[in-house]
Design goal:
- There is one protein chain.
- This protein is mostly beta strands.
- It has no helices and ten strands.
- The N and C termini lie far apart (40 Å).
């Protein structure tokens, strides 16, 4: 029942920045931990950033120090600030609600937003 719509992707040169946005639906939104995922062609989808209902954050080693996840529960929004972008960051980015201690998620997968890092 929980659905998300991602936006904000685009084409950026290495070293550039992007800010992704995720619009969440549902009245129980604020009770979910939230995460940003990405999937590159030929690779499995991976969790790159997570934020708890209380605001605690976790990041994959590949993005730590460069990406920042945040949320605005009043507006039902989740954000991913991406700095110092690298070609390896090229992927389709998705948001969803990860289940603690599991690879599964609570919501359905949306369309995602394409991020391309190229010179």
């Amino acid at each position: 029942q929980v659905q998300f719509v991602e936006s904000g992707g685009g084409l950026v040169q290495p070293g550039g920045s992007l800010r992704l946005s995720c619009q969440a639906s549902g009245s129980t939104w604020r009770f979910y931990n939230m995460g940003w995922y990405r999937q590159a062609p030929g690779k499995e989808r991976e969790l790159v950033a997570r934020i708890s209902t209380g605001g605690s954050t976790n990041y994959a080693d590949s993005v730590k120090g460069r990406f920042t996840i945040s949320r605005d529960n009043t507006k039902n929004m989740v954000y991913l600030q991406m700095n110092s972008l690298k070609p390896e960051d090229t992927a389709v980015y998705y948001c969803n609600a990860p289940q603690t201690g599991s690879s599964r998620v609570f919501g359905s997968w949306g369309q995602g937003t394409q991020v391309t890092i190229s010179s």
